[in-house]
Write a sequence for this structure.
């Protein structure tokens, strides 16, 4: 999957949301992410305890690049892309 989003609440010390239930399991494993389903939701998300900066550093090492970043309310969101090999 060449695109992914990561997000965090306004606090920049983690946790960081790194994927949804359709995310690449190899990337999620590399990040050490855990899959959770919040009570009342009918979907799962992957989370790590690392702050976003550490997650971005790890993703850069495997070829992902930040395309854009924005703030939505108190949530910060980064869109990343990886060239298809």
């Amino acid at each position: 999957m060449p695109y992914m989003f990561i997000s965090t609440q306004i606090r920049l010390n983690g946790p960081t949301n790194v994927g949804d239930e359709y995310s690449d399991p190899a990337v999620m494993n590399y990040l050490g992410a855990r899959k959770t389903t919040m009570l009342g939701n009918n979907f799962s998300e992957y989370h790590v305890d690392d702050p976003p900066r550490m997650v971005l550093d790890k993703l850069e090492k495997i070829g992902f690049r930040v395309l854009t970043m924005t703030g939505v309310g108190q949530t910060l969101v980064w869109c990343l892309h990886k060239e298809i090999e």
Q: What stands out?
A: The mean pLDDT is 92. The longest strand covers residues 64-72. Helices lie at 25-31, 52-61. Residues 52-61 form the longest helix (10 residues).
